[in-house]
Amino acid sequence: MAKSGLKRDQQRFTYLLLLPAILTIIIFTSLPALTTLSYSFFHWTGFQRGSFAGIENFRRLFAFPFRDSLFMAMRHNTLVFIGILIIQTSLGILIAYALYRLKRGQRFFRTVIFLPVIFSLVIVGYMWQAMLDPFYGPINYLLHKVGWDSLALTWLGSTATALPTLVFINLWRWVGFPAIIFLAGLNAINSEYLEAAKIDGASEGQIFRKIMFPLLAPSMTIVTVLTFIGAFEWFDLPYVLGGSSGSPAGATDTLALMFYRLSFGSVDSGANEIGIGAALGVLIFTIVGIGAGFGSKYLRSREVQM
Amino acid sequence: MIKTKSRLRGLMAAVFATAAIVVPITASPANAATEITFWSWRPEDKVFYEAEAAKFLAATGISVKFTPYVATDYNALLSTALIAGKGPDVMQMRAYGGMANLSDAGYFMPLLSKDIPALKKIPAGTLAGAQGYTSKLQYGLPYATSVLGVMYNPDLLKKAGIKALPTTWSSFFTAMDKVKAAGILPLGNGSGYAPGMEQLWGAVGPTFYGGNDFYKNIVAGKKTFEDKNFVASLQAVKDLVAYFPTGHAGLDYNTARGLFANEKAAFYIGGNYEISYFRSLNPALNVGWMPAPAAAAGTPRYVTNWADGGFAINAKTTNKAAAIKFINFLSSKAFMQDAADSLGWISTISGVKVTDPAVVSMVRAIPSSGTPFLTLVGFRYGAPTSSSIMQPGFQKVAAGTQTAAELAAAIQAGVATWYAPLKPKA
Question: What ipTM is given for this predicted complex?
Answer without folding.
Answer: 0.79
